[in-house]
Amino acid sequence: MAKKPRSVPFEQIAQQVAGAPSVSAPFDLRAPGGRGYRLLENNVSPERVRDIGRDGVPLGWDACGCGGDCGYRWYSAEQVSRAAAAATPESGRSGRLVGRFVLLRSDEGDSLLLAHHPARWGTLLE
């Protein structure tokens, strides 16, 4: 009869795992310029979006409601800041589509907003 392999003590396994290099999770989105962003909040209120936008955060707009599959229209931090000073965004509804705003953050701490159709924001997102 063959010998059973000796089991490794749990403490030794825990030490090996703790000593292993950490691996970052993949990014949820890569913005123009290649910077990666991770999802922070999936459904941000319009009032909070306005407050975040006042600080000058870039925004990507999913103008057709496909979830960004065909790409985003990109707006600079300055454009978003002006829109936030002028109006509060609106998350509308069109058939089955419900507009929403998403907040992402890079590993460097930079924020990015996404707006999904049929969201509207003054003259910025018409």
SSE map:
Blueprint: H1 10-19, E1 29-30, E2 36-41, H2 46-54, E3 59-62, E4 73-75, H3 77-86, E5 93-94, E6 97-98, E7 100-106, E8 111-116
Helix pairs in contact: 2-3
Q: How would you describe this structure to a colleague?
A:
The longest helix has 10 residues, at 10-19. The chain has a 6-stranded mixed beta sheet with strand order 1-2-7-8-3-4. The protein is built from 3 helices and 8 strands; from the N terminus they run αββαββαββββ. It is an alpha+beta fold. The protein has helices spanning 10-19, 46-54, 77-86, and strands at 29-30, 36-41, 59-62, 73-75, 93-94, 97-98, 100-106, 111-116. A hairpin with a 4-residue loop joins strand 7 and strand 8. Helix 2 (46-54) packs across helix 3 (77-86). Helices cover 23% and strands 25% of the residues. It has a domain at 35-116. The model has no long low-confidence stretch (mean pLDDT 88).
Strand content: 25-35%
- Give the helix proportion (percent range): 10-25%
Would you count the extended β strands for me? 8
How many separate helices? 3
Query: Topology as H/E string?
Result: HEEHEEHEEEE
Task: Using the alpha-carbon principal axes, give the shape.
Answer: elongated
Low-confidence stretches: none
- Going across the biggest sheet, name each strand in turn: 1-2-7-8-3-4
Mean pLDDT, to the nearest integer, reads 88
Euclidean distance between termini CA atoms: 77 Å
Radius of gyration: 21 Å
User: How would you classify the helix and strand content by structural class?
Assistant: alpha+beta
Largest sheet: 6 strands, mixed
